Amino acid sequence: MASKEKVDTSFSAVASKVQGTQAKWYHGMMSREDAEVKLKQAGVGSFLIRQSQRPGKGFILSANLKRGFVHFSEISISSDGLWTSEQQTQVLDYLSRVEVVKGNPLIANEKASGASFKTTCPYWKLCKEYKDSLKLYDEYFEPSYDMCYCTKCHNKRGEKDVYTRGDPPMKYVLPIGWCRFSLKVPPKAKAQNVFKKWHVCFHGTDSTAVDSILGCGDLLMPGDYAVGGRKLSEKEGHFTDERKPEGFDTKQIFLSPSIKYSGCDVYAKPKTFATSAGKVYDARVAFQVCVRPESYKIGPETIGATRKNIKIDPHVDNDKIECFTKERGSTILYGLLVNMEETNT
């Protein structure tokens, strides 16, 4: 039988509130990588509770101790406010240490604590105003995983610019300068453990296509029929069957590990938007996507940047910046991205 130890009452909660907004120390489903970013920012002695991304693994205590980061799985909370660990009772020893329990508070979830970018960041509010103007169904979204990647919020979190994801690992660049409105994902995302095993890419699109894409639930390729029966064709400025390099197939889904590429004017056509404050912006949209490894190929940019001696993204080679696939069902949308750039008008 696992041992039990009473924890400071300010850090305990009944099990029924583990996933409630009242449990301000609970951060929902979070990767080890993201947890360590928060712990590093909070300093030695801080810790949080998160849900594992692996099916059936339950809750995890992640802590920043003097000897480094530790992650204890199989954590549960009993109705009398006791922390228990059926498999790793050593976690109780760490919880009782002054450096963890008494020295520092748990890291509060921004959503629960009220100190959220949603209430304090003007860029987030600006992007949300544009997103709301698209009049998309609320049922498409999962707001608890929203994120502001403006430079200020990004630096405040102490994040890196580049991360890796998937099996085998592949790097992707955080969408700095964009805001993510998280989407609900289909059951297969959990069944196939896509947030751990699949890669992360971006797909730029026209804001007029967002509702249709969300209605379909997947990315389509030229030649497919969208909701309502409209046949999709190559966009203006893209290669077509009549104008393309020899052997190039235009009937594919195009992605990139760089938002600087997927979010350029060719893929994410800017739309003029006048805010409620009377300012005018160029608004762009894109999707953050999980893509199945081995379902796609990698190739060079096709927007003419190399010919003009332009380096698109300092973190990704121009020769390896475009991903393309003909495999349907190999992508899962999990975020709508919005970027706003003030015009000179």
Automatic annotation (TrEMBL):
InterPro entries attached to this UniProt entry: SH2 (IPR000980), SH2_dom_sf (IPR036860)
Record keywords: SH2 domain
Pfam families for the chain: SH2
SH2 domain span: 25-72
SUPFAM superfamilies: SH2 domain
Descriptive protein name: Neuralized-like protein 4
Species of provenance: Branchiostoma floridae (Florida lancelet)
